[in-house]
Write a structure and sequence with these properties.
Elements: H1 8-51, H2 54-57, H3 59-77, H4 81-109
Helix pairs in contact: 1-3, 1-4, 3-4
Length: about 120
């Protein structure tokens, strides 16, 4: 049985080039998709923080999340999806910090946590 041997380097190079091109095209067209996923997650976390009273009890985290979420939307409107995605991620992180603090405060006292950093 005589099998023809095709050089791996030619096939491997073609696959690598195809992969790089596909990844490049996806990154161009998928930037807004990644942003949309991240901004939705950030908005959900922000709303949960609001429901837990973060605006009153943890204003630094709450307003940091809000400011980044607003700026993410501005960046996305300018098609700066990388910046928008990063800002959405940061907004979600600040909202999660507020959520954790609010839940921890409720678990310790059974009531809403005391306001921090306001009027002191």
């Amino acid at each position: 049985m005589n099998l023809k041997h095709t050089p791996r380097s030619r096939n491997g190079s073609a696959l690598r080039i195809s992969g790089v091109l596909a990844l490049g095209l996806c990154s161009i067209g998928c930037g807004n998709t990644l942003y949309l996923v991240q901004v939705n997650q950030a908005e959900q976390a922000f709303e949960e923080a609001r429901e837990l009273g973060a605006e009153q009890y943890f204003p630094y985290e709450f307003y940091s999340a809000e400011a980044r979420l607003k700026e993410a939307k501005v960046q996305a409107a300018q098609a700066e999806y990388g910046n928008a995605s990063d800002l959405s991620h940061e907004a979600r992180e600040f909202a999660h910090r507020a959520i954790i603090k609010a839940k921890k405060g409720r678990n310790l006292s059974g009531a809403a946590p005391a306001p921090q950093g306001v009027g002191k």
